[in-house]
Amino acid sequence: MANLRVSLVQTDLIWEDSAANCAQLEEKLAGLAGETDVIVLPEMFATGFSMSETGAEIGRGPALQWMQLQANRLGVLLVGSLKVKHQNSLYNRLYAVQPDGTYQVYDKRHLFRMADEHTHYQAGEKQVVISYLGWNIALFICYDLRFPVWSRNVGSAYDAAIYVANWPAPRATAWRTLLQARAIENLSYVIGVNRIGTDANGLTYAGDSLLVDFKGGLLLDLASHDQIATTELSAAELAEFRAKFPAHLDADSFSLSSL
């Protein structure tokens, strides 16, 4: 397993304007060709964290097509969530799009009731771990971060976890702390990508996108800046630490179906 270059994209979002968001992101991403392997965008990057059906993708919609085009042009795995309408239900759906246009999806399990997300969206039912360039990567969305059982790395099933988010500034301490906790307890890299700016509901986002190593150390901290940052994940260092500190061998055995 070779090292993996990962880019975190922290940016403001234009409310419920998918075309404008894709256009500004395309400009930002243009210089990453050949410089990275994985690009991670914020939660609902095409619309912001909106509870309406405005901008919802139906089938292979324009934002998904845009993701496929960018993944191919840049030669990367492109990860980000979209508002999706399927069979009369809305989903907060995370897409992981490969350079050849194929993709895998994860539907957000934990819907943020404090914003009534649970009354507008359908919850997902399955954990998703994808494989890319020899790395196993778990996919999560925002509020999922608060639920360690859902994130549990049973049997070291994943090497890195991605959390995309629209996580408001007043709870920034929880965001930063929980990203580090998930990395430490699961002996994995954790990638957390949040937005910045203020949305149409008056909610302010501080960013604080982080890339955390398996010991809880910060490899990237984007603070509140509009920026893209890239670093490399070391397969050898991860394997060495798991061998020297095999805490996962003492983890409690369980399955989600039994909970």
> Could you give a short account of the major beta sheet?
7 strands, mixed
Helix content: 10-25%
Structural class: alpha/beta
Which blocks of ≥5 consecutive residues have pLDDT under 50?
none
Number of helices: 6
Our measurement of the CA-to-CA distance between the termini, rounded to an integer number of angstroms, reads 34 Å
CATH-defined superfamily: Carbon-nitrogen hydrolase
Radius of gyration: 17 Å
Provide the residue-averaged pLDDT.
97
Inertia-based shape: globular
Percent strand: 25-35%
Number of strands: 15
Give the CATH class.
Alpha Beta
CATH architecture: 4-Layer Sandwich
Number of domains: 1
CATH third-level topology:
Nitrilase/N-carbamoyl-D-aminoacid amidohydrolase
The H/E string reads EHEEHEEEHEEHEHEEEEEEH
Provide an overview of this structure:
- The protein has 259 residues and is α/β, with parallel strands linked by helices.
- The protein has a single domain (4-248), classed as 4-Layer Sandwich (Nitrilase/N-carbamoyl-D-aminoacid amidohydrolase), CATH 3.60.110.
- The chain is 22% helix and 30% strand.
- It has helices at 18-29, 62-74, 117-120, 148-151, 172-186, 235-244; strands at residues 4-10, 38-40, 57-58, 77-86, 89-97, 103-107, 129-132, 135-141, 160-164, 189-193, 196-198, 204-206, 210-212, 218-221, 227-233.
- Strands 1, 2, 3, 4, 5, 6 and 15 form a seven-stranded mixed sheet that branches.
- The mean pLDDT is 97.
